[in-house]
């Protein structure tokens, strides 16, 4: 009989009550010291290990706790710090400047989606002069603390692998292969240090091996792992988020002791059955879905049973990926329907289920959503429901524009002040009536409109003071969604979200945004945008059902949003923004699967929006992903205005759109909303002058921040927007005068 053990490969690192968020934001605002921040961080780290120890996990992944982002951690540990940050002397100030920029105007590292998840990582910047200068002292200290708490025999260090690190970096003037070779000595040094700590093995996380182009990494990967094997510390090569695909035959031959595969996403099971599995290696079987809240022990137990007939040595039963993608504890949700709750599994539940699965058993309640499948919606809809009544070339002249271009607007949200958050909490607890709540919300809307009038923006927003989250807000107003009170998941840094759970067919109950739009528009003669979150983003930022395809869920959401667009238009709204920041992250990791996803994703967006009349301007917003390789799909969305995150990426997306020949209006972000710095007029002039050189006709350019402003303070927002508007007006005048 095959020997089976249990393991974890990552765990939530935010704390049950968002302790890390509170500690970070208190430290950044100067309300607490670094020592206080470090104390909270260690407490969260210890609680995480305690959970896994109490669950009886035999091999516990350690060292994955982070102050902001684990990829940034490895950039810092490896000493691959861009030159502009070297002026910052204090190590923690330097770390956070790399993450968020600083008040002195240092630009943070670019931020991008981590594979196909809603987690954001800080992109390493590497060039011909980049050479590791590692300092692993802090990491080794974390490993030593874990060993003291849970025992040396259980504590398995999690290391972000050299191949994936280089693959995810922005490499300029140096190839990925060359960068991998430069990294190997640093990693070998780390392995030697870990060997001296007598660790049972090292988890080397290499999700980059599942990417569609991973074949090109073969030679560099083989050379790297041959060198690392010389240290003679057992390595568990951990992959996740998809199957290995074409890389399977050579990846499983790498000189490591264990290969960990994701048996939830992709089809690694077929690859194992087709090619077999090396008789001299252990298999880490990721069979519990680390990105879903539905119990799936029945599926997991079945996969383990099939693997036992193939694997000759040992099987390690583990989640499919780090559990950082799911909330911490379903028992912290007293308001959830008991029947539904019995079918849910968060991080603490999943680690307790590992032993059950390893023993060959499954939970009888693990039946997924338990709702009958829906019909194929697309086949029931008329084709005309997916196309605008007139092409953009005829629509644009009927829509609001600013003569000469450089029209100014924002992306949607304004600061979520303590007063706003307190009001929403009081309303949620029943401490204020609905009438009083709406009166208070209207006052916040009035303030936002007044600020925009004073600043002279061209297109206004109402500020979204009634919304805690751009997905949760809509889910709460749609049938088929349920919500948690404490189901927080890290998106990046101190930004946490509570993804809704889709458990049944989705439909709209009543208008969701019309009241706030009408209130805002009544306060100004300037156009106010109706603000909606798109169907693909709502789906990708929720925990979807597992009993029907994602396509069907997206189309259901799209139909609900279509009704909202129609109602906004009837209420006098002439500009409607339908944000789709998660379009790219839902893209399969292997290119051969792209077309199917993009086909239904674009159709869902169009189904939501094309009900609008030609005179109604449809805006969409994309951010924090690499969109250059799906420009055709973005074009097919047929939005009238495309706003994009742009400030950290050096206008790369803008240049790509110009090269592609994108023929609609574009609003490239001019400053980083995650930085505490107020952009100077000099900085903004330089940025906008760069736009003029992009090849995009000036009359089609809009000026806006990178993203929503909810995480900033009014003291930062007002001067930033004032400078943005002043520079836009100056350039508009200069362009008009032919300067």
UniProtKB/TrEMBL annotation:
<dbReference type="InterPro" id="IPR002629">
    <property type="entry name" value="Met_Synth_C/arc"/>
</dbReference>
<keyword id="KW-0479">Metal-binding</keyword>
<feature type="binding site">
    <location>
        <position position="21"/>
    </location>
    <ligand>
        <name>5-methyltetrahydropteroyltri-L-glutamate</name>
    </ligand>
</feature>
<dbReference type="GO" id="GO:0003871">
    <property type="term" value="F:5-methyltetrahydropteroyltriglutamate-homocysteine S-methyltransferase activity"/>
</dbReference>
<keyword id="KW-0028">Amino-acid biosynthesis</keyword>
<feature type="region of interest" description="Disordered">
    <location>
        <begin position="359"/>
        <end position="378"/>
    </location>
</feature>
<dbReference type="GO" id="GO:0009086">
    <property type="term" value="P:methionine biosynthetic process"/>
</dbReference>
<dbReference type="Pfam" id="PF08267">
    <property type="entry name" value="Meth_synt_1"/>
</dbReference>
<dbReference type="GO" id="GO:0032259">
    <property type="term" value="P:methylation"/>
</dbReference>
<feature type="binding site">
    <location>
        <position position="623"/>
    </location>
    <ligand>
        <name>Zn(2+)</name>
    </ligand>
</feature>
<feature type="binding site">
    <location>
        <position position="579"/>
    </location>
    <ligand>
        <name>L-homocysteine</name>
    </ligand>
</feature>
<feature type="active site" description="Proton donor">
    <location>
        <position position="674"/>
    </location>
</feature>
<dbReference type="InterPro" id="IPR013215">
    <property type="entry name" value="Cbl-indep_Met_Synth_N"/>
</dbReference>
<feature type="binding site">
    <location>
        <position position="464"/>
    </location>
    <ligand>
        <name>L-methionine</name>
    </ligand>
</feature>
<feature type="binding site">
    <location>
        <position position="645"/>
    </location>
    <ligand>
        <name>Zn(2+)</name>
    </ligand>
</feature>
<keyword id="KW-0808">Transferase</keyword>
<feature type="binding site">
    <location>
        <position position="707"/>
    </location>
    <ligand>
        <name>Zn(2+)</name>
    </ligand>
</feature>
<dbReference type="InterPro" id="IPR038071">
    <property type="entry name" value="UROD/MetE-like_sf"/>
</dbReference>
<feature type="domain" description="Cobalamin-independent methionine synthase MetE N-terminal">
    <location>
        <begin position="6"/>
        <end position="309"/>
    </location>
</feature>
<feature type="binding site">
    <location>
        <position position="118"/>
    </location>
    <ligand>
        <name>5-methyltetrahydropteroyltri-L-glutamate</name>
    </ligand>
</feature>
<keyword id="KW-0862">Zinc</keyword>
<comment type="pathway">
    <text>Amino-acid biosynthesis; L-methionine biosynthesis via de novo pathway; L-methionine from L-homocysteine (MetE route): step 1/1.</text>
</comment>
<dbReference type="GO" id="GO:0008270">
    <property type="term" value="F:zinc ion binding"/>
</dbReference>
<protein>
    <recommendedName>
        <fullName>5-methyltetrahydropteroyltriglutamate--homocysteine S-methyltransferase</fullName>
        <ecNumber>2.1.1.14</ecNumber>
    </recommendedName>
</protein>
<feature type="binding site">
    <location>
        <position position="579"/>
    </location>
    <ligand>
        <name>L-methionine</name>
    </ligand>
</feature>
<comment type="similarity">
    <text>Belongs to the vitamin-B12 independent methionine synthase family.</text>
</comment>
<feature type="binding site">
    <location>
        <position position="541"/>
    </location>
    <ligand>
        <name>5-methyltetrahydropteroyltri-L-glutamate</name>
    </ligand>
</feature>
<comment type="function">
    <text>Catalyzes the transfer of a methyl group from 5-methyltetrahydrofolate to homocysteine resulting in methionine formation.</text>
</comment>
<feature type="binding site">
    <location>
        <position position="621"/>
    </location>
    <ligand>
        <name>Zn(2+)</name>
    </ligand>
</feature>
<dbReference type="Pfam" id="PF01717">
    <property type="entry name" value="Meth_synt_2"/>
</dbReference>
<keyword id="KW-0486">Methionine biosynthesis</keyword>
<feature type="binding site">
    <location>
        <begin position="411"/>
        <end position="413"/>
    </location>
    <ligand>
        <name>L-methionine</name>
    </ligand>
</feature>
<keyword id="KW-0489">Methyltransferase</keyword>
<feature type="binding site">
    <location>
        <begin position="411"/>
        <end position="413"/>
    </location>
    <ligand>
        <name>L-homocysteine</name>
    </ligand>
</feature>
<dbReference type="InterPro" id="IPR006276">
    <property type="entry name" value="Cobalamin-indep_Met_synthase"/>
</dbReference>
<feature type="compositionally biased region" description="Polar residues">
    <location>
        <begin position="361"/>
        <end position="378"/>
    </location>
</feature>
<feature type="domain" description="Cobalamin-independent methionine synthase MetE C-terminal/archaeal">
    <location>
        <begin position="406"/>
        <end position="728"/>
    </location>
</feature>
């Amino acid at each position: 009989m095959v020997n089976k053990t249990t393991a974890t490969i990552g765990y939530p690192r935010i704390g049950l009550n968002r302790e890390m968020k509170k500690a970070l934001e208190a430290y950044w605002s100067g309300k607490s010291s670094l020592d206080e921040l470090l104390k909270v961080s260690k407490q969260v780290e210890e609680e995480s290990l305690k959970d896994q120890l109490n669950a009886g996990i035999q091999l516990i992944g350690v060292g994955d706790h982070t102050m902001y982002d684990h990829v940034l951690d490895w950039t810092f540990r490896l000493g691959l710090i861009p030159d502009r940050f070297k002026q910052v002397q204090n190590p923690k100030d330097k770390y956070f400047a790399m993450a968020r920029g600083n008040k002195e105007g240092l630009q943070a590292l670019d931020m991008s989606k981590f594979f196909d998840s809603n987690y954001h990582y800080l992109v390493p910047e590497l060039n011909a002069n980049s050479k590791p200068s590692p300092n692993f002292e802090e990491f080794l200290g974390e490993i030593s603390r874990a060993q003291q708490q849970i025992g040396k025999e259980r504590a398995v260090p999690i290391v972000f692998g050299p191949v994936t690190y280089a693959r995810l970096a922005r490499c300029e003037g140096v190839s990925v292969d060359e960068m991998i070779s430069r990294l190997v000595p640093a990693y070998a040094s780390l392995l030697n240090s870990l060997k001296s700590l007598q660790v049972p093995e090292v988890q080397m996380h290499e999700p980059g091996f599942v990417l569609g182009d991973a074949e090109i990494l073969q030679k560099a990967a083989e050379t790297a792992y041959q060198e690392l094997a010389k240290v003679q510390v057992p390595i568990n090569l951990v992959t996740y988020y998809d199957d290995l695909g074409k890389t399977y035959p050579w990846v499983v031959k790498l000189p490591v002791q264990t290969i960990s595969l994701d048996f939830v996403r992709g089809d690694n099971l077929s690859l194992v059955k087709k090619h077999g599995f090396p008789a001299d290696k252990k298999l880490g079987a990721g069979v519990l879905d680390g990105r879903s809240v539905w119990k799936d022990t029945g599926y997991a137990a079945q996969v383990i049973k099939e693997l036992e007939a193939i694997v000759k040595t040992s099987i390690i039963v583990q989640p499919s990926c780090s559990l950082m993608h799911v909330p911490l504890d379903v028992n912290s949700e007293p308001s959830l329907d008991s029947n539904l709750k019995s079918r849910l599994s968060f991080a603490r539940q999943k680690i307790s289920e590992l032993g059950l699965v390893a023993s060959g058993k499954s939970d009888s309640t693990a039946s997924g959503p338990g709702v009958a499948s829906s019909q194929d919606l697309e086949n029931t809809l008329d084709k005309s429901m997916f196309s605008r009544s007139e092409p953009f070339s005829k629509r644009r002249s009927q829509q609001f524009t600013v003569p000469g271009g450089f029209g100014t607007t924002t992306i949607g949200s304004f600061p979520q002040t303590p007063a706003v958050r307190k009001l929403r909490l009081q309303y949620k607890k029943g401490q204020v009536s609905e009438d009083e709540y709406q009166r208070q919300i209207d006052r916040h809307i009035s303030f936002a409109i007044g600020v925009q009038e004073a600043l002279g923006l061209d297109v206004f927003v109402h500020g979204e003071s009634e919304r805690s989250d751009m997905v949760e807000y809509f889910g709460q107003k749609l049938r088929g969604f349920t919500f948690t009170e404490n189901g927080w998941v890290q998106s990046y840094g101190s930004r946490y979200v509570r993804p809704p759970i889709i458990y049944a067919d989705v439909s709209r109950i009543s208008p969701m945004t019309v009241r706030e739009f009408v209130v805002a528009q009544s306060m100004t003669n300037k156009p106010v945008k109706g603000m909606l979150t798109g169907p693909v983003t709502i789906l990708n930022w929720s925990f979807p059902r597992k009993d029907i395809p994602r396509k069907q869920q997206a189309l259901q959401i799209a139909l609900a949003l279509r009704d909202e667009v129609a109602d906004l238009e009837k209420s006098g709204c002439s500009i409607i923004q339908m944000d789709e920041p998660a379009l790219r992250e839902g893209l399969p990791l292997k290119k051969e699967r792209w077309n199917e996803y993009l086909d239904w994703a674009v159709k869902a967006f169009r189904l939501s929006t094309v009900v609008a009349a030609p005179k109604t301007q449809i805006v969409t917003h994309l951010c924090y992903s690499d969109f250059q390789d799906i420009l055709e799909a973005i074009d097919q969305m047929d939005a009238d205005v495309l706003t994009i995150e742009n400030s950290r990426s050096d206008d790369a997306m803008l240049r790509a759109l110009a090269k592609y020949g994108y023929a609609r209006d574009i609003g490239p972000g001019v400053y980083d909303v995650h930085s505490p710095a107020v952009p100077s007029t000099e900085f903004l002039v330089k940025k906008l002058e760069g736009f003029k050189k992009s090849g995009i006709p000036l009359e089609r350019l809009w000026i806006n921040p990178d993203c929503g402003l909810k995480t900033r303070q009014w003291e930062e927002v007002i001067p930033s927007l004032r400078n943005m508007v002043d520079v836009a007006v100056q350039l508009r005048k200069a362009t008009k005068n032919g300067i």
